[in-house]
Amino acid sequence: MKFIEFDQKKCDECYKCLRVCPTKAIVFTEHRRDIVDDMCIKCGVCQASCPQEALTIQNDKYKVKKHINLGKKIVISLAPSYASAFNIDNPKRIITALRQLGASWIEETSVAAELVSQCYETQIEKDPKKNILTTCCPSANYLVQYYYPELLDYLLPVVSPMIAHGKLLKERFGNDCYVVFIGPCLAKKAEAESEGHIDAVLTFNELLEWFSEMQLDYTELAPGTFDAEPTLRGMAYPVGGSLFHNDRVTPINSQYTTLRVDGVERCKDLLETLKKDGLNKYCVEMNICHGSCVNGPDMPHDGQTYYQRKDRLLEYLKCHDTHQTLDTLLAEGAQKVSFEQTFEPKKTMLKYPTKEEVKQILRQIDKYSEKDYLNCGSCGYDTCEDKAIAVFNNLSKPHMCLPYLRSKAESLSSALFDHTPNLVCVLDHDLALLEYNPTFETRFHIDDISLKGMPILAFMNEDIFAECLANKASVVGRRETIDSHGRVFFCNAIYTERYILGIMTDITQTEKSRQELAQVKERTLVACQEVINKQMRVAQEIASLLGETTAETKVNLNRLKEIVLMDEGY
Question: Which of 367, 354, 547 lies closest to 448 in space, CA to CA?
Answer without folding.
Answer: 367
